Amino acid sequence: MKTNPIKFGTDGWRAVIAEDFTFDNVRICAQAVSEYLINHNLADRGLVIGHDTRFASEDFAAACAEIAAANGIRVFLSSRAIPTPEVSFAVTARGAGAAIVITASHNPARYNGFKIKSMDGASAPEDVIDEVESYIARIFSAGEVRKTPLAEALNSGMIEIVDFDPLYLKRMTEFVDIRLLQQSGLKIMVDSMYGAGSGIFKRLLTGGTTSIEEIHGERNPIFPGINPEPIAINLKELSEKVRRSSASIGLATDGDADRIGIIDENGNFITQLQVFALLALYLLEIRGLRGAIIKTVTSTSMLYRLGELYQVPVIETPVGFKYVAPEMISRNALIGGEESGGYGFRGHVPERDSILAGLYFLDFMVKTGKSPAQLLEYLFSKVGPHFYNRLDIHFPAENRQSIINRIMANKPASIDGIKVARFDTLDGFRFTMQDNSWLLIRFSGTEPLLRIYAETGSPEKVQRLLEFGRELTGLKE
């Protein structure tokens, strides 16, 4: 009997295309989501389905639509590849019961994935995922999948092809003064990384003295030369173009445009942790807003200092927006974010949105008259210098337990000459030193990958901490 390969991780199920990510398995997932909606009296609300630019994503999305329609659920199927946050907003705008997004986000080109969004637009929480997985296990064994041909479902009205773009773009204008940004004279370089965010900043900001140049805006499912993750190693071309063209800023969005990366005017990458703190500072100081800040364990300790300065609570969760979103909702939080470069904001959907994050960052520049590098200096003047980096190491999946055993057997009393003040395993293995520097070792929730994170007061010390963490795992880069 074939083993069920479908297992949801940090944010959805991801697998190699044509190996485990097959039409049969995607249909099983869609059947399980349909049964969840039916069993929770949400089927009458309908189901939004979107997809990214990966290989055959639109075909996998259509296959999901056929399954939902056969189960009596009306489907709103995106007419094009769109950002995941656009799908999340569409759920709330349409009053749908849930959404399916066909995307592997930032994973390498050979992967695709299946994300579930709940009726509030957030990543489906653990209890929902657990229930869907229980349906998947039963369906996988029994083979009970209903299906209606796409053409038939379109003719009957059970599937409606929808362009969600106009509604989403209008939504963005509710958060920032788009006219002000259009007339700011900024020179913006955008790297869409061949992903679903292609063209959106151009459509929003064209029409004034601001100029927008985009690279990697075409669809190319093999993501040549990069993984579609907006981190420094993948943004070398963007950095060089920002320097050569004397651009004001570089903005990069990942494969499904829920994560953002920022390059300053000198071509330097502003780390995801620094961007998180800058966005929080913008909302607290420039907007004068107050509310809780929700961070994951991999996010910056600068947020604690900002919380003290502006008298707002800072709440920590495990990695994954499925943990961040419930806290954002229950506390009406101002901002929630994670180390990956994904940030969500109050008044929108409790989900990561790279487009809104980018617009807020541009507004921060315009309202203060400061460049990205100057904004970072301003942040450091309030919280002190903080630098960060991450080391990713692929490893044989069967070695996972031996790595865990090695770390637990060799827990250090001090790192880089600084005493370890706290050790915790909220999500991974985190060592916090007396000077508030920290080192975290954790396994990816979506692939056989070990991630080592460090934040401290200098770039040189970051590298030493990362090297110490690598030695502790016994792995080589």
Output the structural class.
alpha/beta
Report the span from N to C terminus.
37 Å
Radius of gyration: 22 Å
Integer average pLDDT: 95
Secondary structure: elements and pairs:
Blueprint: E1 13-16, H1 23-39, E2 47-51, H2 57-70, E3 75-78, H3 84-94, E4 98-102, E5 111-117, H4 126-142, H5 150-156, E6 159-162, H6 165-172, H7 178-182, E7 187-191, H8 200-205, E8 211-215, H9 236-245, E9 249-253, E10 260-263, E11 269-270, H10 272-286, E12 293-296, H11 302-310, E13 314-317, H12 321-331, E14 335-338, E15 342-345, H13 354-368, H14 372-383, E16 387-394, H15 400-409, E17 414-415, E18 418-424, E19 429-433, E20 438-443, E21 449-456, H16 459-473
Parallel strand pairs: 2-3, 2-4, 3-6, 7-8, 7-9, 12-13, 12-14
Antiparallel strand pairs: 1-5, 4-5, 9-10, 10-11, 14-15, 16-21, 17-18, 18-19, 19-20, 20-21
